[in-house]
């Protein structure tokens, strides 16, 4: 990837040194990241829940340790995320926050404080931020609301403010809207909602540079990966064409391939995962606007999908480039091959 002016990388985590986790403190995982990655992102440690235990207090210890480690090993880090706009992922204090007699002003203060504090602390050490994450409802395509957006009097003014504040606080940084509107059937309303949001940003002159295409993909339905892809490719390309026509860059920010519905047999499962991924990557890498590809974890042992979409046969997920014993799988080779071609 590096030779082609692109970057490949992954999410990783913080953990105490003795924990078995997808963390830089785990020597086996650290070695894997150092070997394959040029850019990293904290899986959880830059979220409000992690960074801001109360309205007036920040705790940067874990994220600082991650960034120090990444830099010591010559890897860049992205920032994820300055605002995950979903009640479920707000810290409890924010969901119950009293915005007082002038709610809009107080909401601006709470949001601005967050963005300025984080961006101010890291300066040019972070070159790309998921300023806003997942604000479009996947079922309806409408914008979500939360305690914060209600205090703002609407979600749009809150989103605009987040990007404007980020631009002022980190003028060097790429500002990204990040979401999971995928190419599988069932994502139509979600994609339409994201397009409306991106159009709105352009109309209002909001400083948004790129769309983060999370890329939590999943081979579903009848037939071979090629047949599945053939059913999905046209609307997906139309979506990406519309996004890039508006002048947005693209990133793959959270790549993995769910395998909950696939056969038990490892060889078959790994083959389907790799083939499906290869077709998907070919499409995305065909866009010159895409320079960064990040996996959401490099090792099956630590994937979030173990908890979120567990295998019913108890065999564990095989959704990342390396298996539970840190051995490369066909998915790893497929990604490498596609990046070399891009
Ligand atoms: O740290 C606590 C731990 O102290 C506690 O004992 C344990 C008990 O549940 O929870 C731990 O926190 C969990 C955290 O992951 C760290 O493991 C949270 O409950 C759990 O909700 C959290 O899940 C993360 C999720 O985002 C929500 O923040 C996943 O690891 C992470 O992979 C996932 O990542 C998201 C992206 O940010 C946005 N896009 C989708 C992606 C996958 O859902």
TrEMBL record:
Location of the GH10 domain: 18-338
InterPro entries xrefs: GH, GH10, GH10_dom, TAT_signal
Reaction(s) this enzyme catalyzes, per UniProt: Endohydrolysis of (1->4)-beta-D-xylosidic linkages in xylans
Pfam families xref list: Glyco_hydro_10
A Gene Ontology biological process term: xylan catabolic process
Keyword vocabulary terms for this entry: Carbohydrate metabolism, Glycosidase, Hydrolase, Polysaccharide degradation, Signal, Xylan degradation
Transmembrane feature ranges: none
GO molecular function, one term: endo-1,4-beta-xylanase activity
Major enzyme class: hydrolase
Its EC number(s): 3.2.1.8
Similarity annotation: Belongs to the glycosyl hydrolase 10 (cellulase F) family.
Stated name of the protein: Beta-xylanase
Organism listed in the record: Sphingomonas pokkalii
């Amino acid at each position: 990837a590096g030779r082609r002016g692109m970057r490949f990388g992954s999410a990783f985590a913080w953990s105490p040194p003795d924990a078995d986790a997808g963390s830089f403190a785990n020597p086996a995982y650290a070695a894997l990241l150092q070997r394959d990655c040029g850019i990293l992102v904290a899986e959880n440690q830059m979220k409000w829940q992690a960074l801001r235990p109360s309205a007036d207090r920040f705790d940067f210890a874990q994220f600082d340790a991650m960034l120090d480690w990444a830099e010591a090993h010559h890897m860049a880090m992205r920032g994820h995320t300055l605002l995950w706009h979903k009640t479920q992922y707000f810290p409890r204090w924010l969901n119950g926050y009293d915005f007082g007699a002038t709610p809009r002003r107080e909401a601006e203060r709470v949001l601005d404080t967050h963005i300025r504090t984080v961006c101010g602390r890291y300066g040019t050490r972070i070159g790309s931020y998921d300023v806003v994450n997942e604000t479009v409802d996947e079922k309806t395509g409408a914008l979500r609301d939360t305690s914060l957006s209600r205090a703002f009097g609407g979600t749009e003014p809150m989103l605009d403010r987040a990007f404007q504040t980020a631009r002022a606080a980190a003028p060097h940084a790429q500002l990204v809207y990040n979401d999971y509107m995928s190419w599988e059937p069932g994502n139509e309303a979600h994609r339409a909602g994201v397009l409306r949001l991106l159009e709105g940003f352009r109309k209002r002159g909001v400083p948004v540079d790129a769309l983060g295409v999370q890329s939590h993909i999943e081979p579903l339905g009848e037939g071979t990966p090629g047949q599945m892809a053939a059913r999905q490719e046209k609307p997906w390309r139309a979506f990406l064409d519309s996004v890039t026509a508006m002048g947005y860059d693209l990133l793959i920010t959270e790549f993995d391939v769910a395998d909950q519905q696939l056969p038990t047999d490892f060889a078959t499962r790994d083959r389907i995962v790799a083939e499906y991924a290869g077709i998907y990557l070919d499409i995305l890498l065909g866009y010159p606007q895409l320079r960064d590809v990040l996996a959401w974890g490099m090792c099956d042992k630590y994937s979030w999908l173990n908890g979120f979409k567990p295998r019913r046969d108890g065999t564990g997920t095989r959704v990342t480039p390396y298996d539970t014993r840190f051995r490369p799988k066909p998915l790893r080779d497929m990604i490498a091959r596609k990046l070399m071609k891009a």
